[in-house]
Every structure is written in C-alpha cells, then in structure tokens.
Amino acid sequence: MNFKNNTPLPGPIPIPIFGTLHIIGINPRAWYDKNSDKAGTVWEFYIGHERNVVVNDINSAEILCKPSKRIYKRLPFPSIERMGLGHGLFFNNNYESFHKKRRLVNRALGASKFIRGLVISIQNIFKESEDIWEQLNIKDGLEFDFCEWLRCFLTDISVLQTTKQRSYTVASFAAKDDLIQSEEAKNSLKFTDAVDKFFDSLGFFAFTPLFMQDYVPGFTHYRKKCERNVHFLYGAIVNIINKRKKELDEGAELDADLLDHYLIAHTLKDQGSDKVENVASLTTEEVSVLTWDTLLAGTEATANALCFLTYFVAKNPNVLAKIHKEINEVFGSDPNVEFTLEKLDNCHYIEAVVKESLRLILVSPYTVKISDENENIAGYDFPSGTKFWVDHQGLCNNPDIWNHPENFNPDRFLSKNYGGSSDITELQRFAFSPFGCGLRGCAGKVVAPIMMKTVKDLNVRINLKDVSSFS
Ligand code: HEM
C-alpha cells in the first residue's frame, strides 16, 4: 500500500488497510476541527489507501463549488454501484446519465402541482396524527420522542409522494403497534423498516474500504446482510412501479406525484419540454432507482433538519412567540384552516427561522467533490480524481462572514421590510450552503424549506412545554 503522493500535505499519519479511519473516533467534527487547528486550511487523511484532501478556505470552496462539468463527481460508493444503484441520481458519477436524471428530477420537484400536492399530504398526515392522539384519549398531554415522531412523519410523507403507497409509521409510532393490524399496514412497516436499515448501512458503504467489505469476515457478513436488505427494498419498489405502469396503461388519471412524473417522462403524455427533444423515456429500472434516490435523499435529511429547528425554537421562547404571532396573522386562529402555498409564502419570519436553523447546524456538514482534471487549489497542484472535502459547516459559521455566527438569530435572514435586519451580502449568499453546492447541490433545496415551513407551522399546534429541559 502506498501513501506517497506528489503533493504531501500535513495530516494524521495513515496505516495500511485502515488509512486514518481508525483514529477518527465517535465525534468526527471534533477530530476534523483538531486537525484543521493543527494543520491549517489544507490537510489530508486516508480512507483505506484513498487520499482525501480537506480545504477550509473560502477561495478554495469557491473553486470547488462552481457549477462545472469538471467537478461534478461525488464520493463513490462502489458496493452500492455493484448492486445496480449507480445509474440513478445520487450515486451516479457518469456525467451524461447523471445530467439526464438531474434535469428530470429538477423538473419533477419544481412542478407547482407537485409542491401543492406535497403541502396537502403534509396536512393530511398531520391530521391523522392528531386523530390518533385523540383516539388514544390523551387529555393531559403526551410525552414522546419528538425527533423519532418527526422521522416517522417525514417517512410517511416521502413514501406517499414518491411511491403513492400509504405507510403507517406515524400510526405505529403513536399507537405502539395497537392500530397496525391490517396486512397493508404490516407490509408498509416492513418497507419503512428496510428504508431505515438502508440509512444505517450508508456510513458502512461509504467508509469501509471495498477490500475489507469483500474479504474481512465480520465486514463481509454485514455487507451481505445490507445487500439482502437492498434487494428486498428494490424489489418492493419495482413491484409498485409495475403495478402503477399497468394502471396508467389501462387509462388511470395522472397524479402530481413523483412516480407518475418519472413514468411518463419523455413519453407522449409528458407535458414538459423534454418531449420535444426526443429523449428516450425511462426504463423500469431507471424509474426504480430514481424513486429510490428521491425517497432516500429527502426523508432523513429533512427530518434531521426539523429536529434541529425544533430544538432551536424550543430553546428560544421569544422566537416561538414570534412564530405564533405570524401564524395567527397569516392563518387566523382556526386550527383546521387549510394551508396553501400562497399563505405559506407570507410566513416570512418562519422562513427566516428555517434558514437560520439550517445555517447553524448542518445535516451534511461536508460534501465531497472529485475533479476530473488537474486542479490548483490553495497553491497546491492536485491530479485529477483527487477527493476534496468542502466544509459547509465551517462556511456557514465562519466569524469573518457572519456576525456572531454562534447565535441563533433568525433576524439576519429577515428583510428590513418585515422587521428584520437582513442585509445578506454576496459572500454570505455563497457561504450559506446547507444544501451543498455546484452541479451536485441538493435537488430538493427549493422543496425542503417549504416542507420545513409547513411542518413547523403545523407543529406549533403541539404545545412545546418545559422547553428548558429540551436537549
Ligand atoms: C433540509 C433538508 C435537506 C437537506 C439539508 C439536504 C441536503 C443535501 C445535501 C448536502 C446534498 C449533497 C449536495 C452536494 O453533494 O453538494 C443533497 C443531495 C440531494 N438531495 Fe437533499 N437535502 C434535503 C432535503 C431533500 C429533499 C426533500 C429532497 C427530495 C425530495 C432531496 C433530494 C436530494 C437529491 C436527489 C440529492 C442528490 C443530488 C445529485 O446527486 O445531483 N433533498 N441534499
């Protein structure tokens, strides 16, 4: 194993097979900060024998974040590609194929019919949650793991929007399985359980060198277990798609959700512009992988971001009071009022709260960019194929860019017209990167804040008591 390279950089000393993985420990951020403090703006570490370069300065980030065909590849997941999931969007590092899928996903997620449908689904599933709590006859309040509930809630929404299927994770969570007796509910729980397991395995797939996954007994056993889970999940998605294809062939009405969007893309039923360009429609396999990608990319990230948001709001009663005030002004006092996109657009303060929370703690603190050409970054020459880590958490919390970045201050994102102090500079606009950057930046970056706003507005109906103990 050879750790020599043309541009030696400071960084922890690697060992064969593990590289520097074994010393990262359970708090990768602390490890990262320690190395950055010691080594400065550019340093390196190794995943197995693969070199990874960390860059912390804004100029390097600007180069790596440019939307350019030169730097569009993300960290490869060879074992996931081996399972056939590399030709969708998230794990796709083939430019032509990625570009075709990305345009399609952008179009699907940006369609106003889709966004309106999403807002309605969120309200309906929230109402179900409220009904379940009522059925459980909860009078004096309910203590529950709010983040876990959010995760279930987001899972039900994402499954519905991407596969048209009802899942019952909220019901199962709130009722502790009592209300989940039907075959349909049991199957849906198996499906969402497999989704959870896939998330759990992602870290393993990303950071365990292929050699270890294939040849070191404990690791090989775990890889096989994860593969069985992927095959189950993938098979379930293919079944859903075949069923829907048949319904559409038999003349079923089109819905505004993602599945129908992918199924009719580039066919005669497609009202979008791509039809004109004579692009081939998607195969069942491609629709399955795209469904997989949008289901998985959106759920966990949004649920985690909402957990952080709730934490900050609970810790800042003055912010909660302002949210209540805005909701009363925009929606009135009737808790059953329908949420519309137009009304959500008027929630300027809540939008600022969402942004500030996304800035302060990032769901994905780093992204990895791989250049297809030689690059000169921070004064060093790097060969093509170098893996660069961009520190978005650092960009969003850099004291040279943000005034008191450690404070939770939604006013910094609220325009003066609405009582805030916002005067966001070009540099801040660039540095605000919770959704990553460049060609591979989050495909859900428009829809995610709308989801967060809707959920937050609805959540205000849950009385956050005893906020001091919220941790
Ligand atoms: C607050 C919620 C979310 C956060 C913080 C978030 C963050 C991110 C980040 C950091 C990336 C990687 C970007 C990069 O490599 O530069 C990403 C990719 C992606 N996200 Fe999100 N995301 C969120 C919600 C969503 C939602 C709701 C969807 C879709 C329904 C979605 C779909 C995607 C997809 C498809 C990709 C892969 C894009 C590509 O490879 O071209 N995300 N997201």
UniProtKB/TrEMBL annotation:
Gene3D superfamilies linked to this entry: Cytochrome P450
Record has Iron as a keyword: yes
Protein residues bound to heme: C442
InterPro entries: Cyt_P450, Cyt_P450_CS, Cyt_P450_E_grp-I, Cyt_P450_sf
SUPFAM superfamilies: Cytochrome P450 (SSF48264)
A GO molecular-function descriptor: oxidoreductase activity, acting on paired donors, with incorporation or reduction of molecular oxygen
Names of the cofactor(s): heme
PROSITE patterns linked to this entry: CYTOCHROME_P450
Keywords: Heme, Iron, Metal-binding, Monooxygenase, Oxidoreductase
Keyword check for Iron: yes
PANTHER family associated with the record: THROMBOXANE-A SYNTHASE
Similarity section: Belongs to the cytochrome P450 family.
Protein name listed in UniProt: 9474_t:CDS:1
